[in-house]
Amino acid sequence: MRILEHPILGKLEERNKVTIEFDGKPVEAYEGEPIAAALMAAGFKVLRYTPKYNEPRGVFCAIGRCTDCMMIIDGAPNVRTCITPVKAGMKVETQHGRGYWK
Ligand code: FES
Asked: Domain range for residue 33?
């Protein structure tokens, strides 16, 4: 589910492969790609649960406008993962309800 050769970004294998932690599990990603894209490529589609009805949410707009992709990143809540780039070793957690600092 990844674009292997992009006319602007280049070939995927030329990018730096790193490992991030998603809810305690290691996930391989490419440095600089959006966190949400890395999780989707690894098969994870639910990124948060709504505060009122606890309904699952994933990527919707993918341009940083809707907030459906908010997650807890390195202890910081309400991070829009569709526009936040992957860094090696970052800790990514599913957000349940309103975000709270850890
Ligand atoms: S999917 Fe809409 S802000 Fe990320």
From this structure: 16-96
**What contacts 29, CB < 8 A, 6 or more positions away?**
17, 18, 19, 20, 35, 38, 41, 42, 86
- The Cα 3–Cα 35 span in angstroms is 15
CATH number at residue 34: 3.10.20.440
- Quick one: which atom of ligand 1 is closest to the CA of 70? 4
The CB of 45 under 6 Å from ligand 1? The reply is no
Span from the CA of 101 to the centroid of ligand 1 (angstroms): 20
Question: What total of structural domains would you count in the chain?
Answer: 1
The CB of 100 under 6 Å from ligand 1? The reply is no
Q: Which pTM does this prediction carry? A: 0.91
pLDDT per residue rounded down to tens, the chain (102 residues): 788 888 987 888 788 999 999 999 999 999 999 999 999 999 999 999 999 999 999 999 999 999 999 999 999 999 999 999 999 999 999 999 998 887
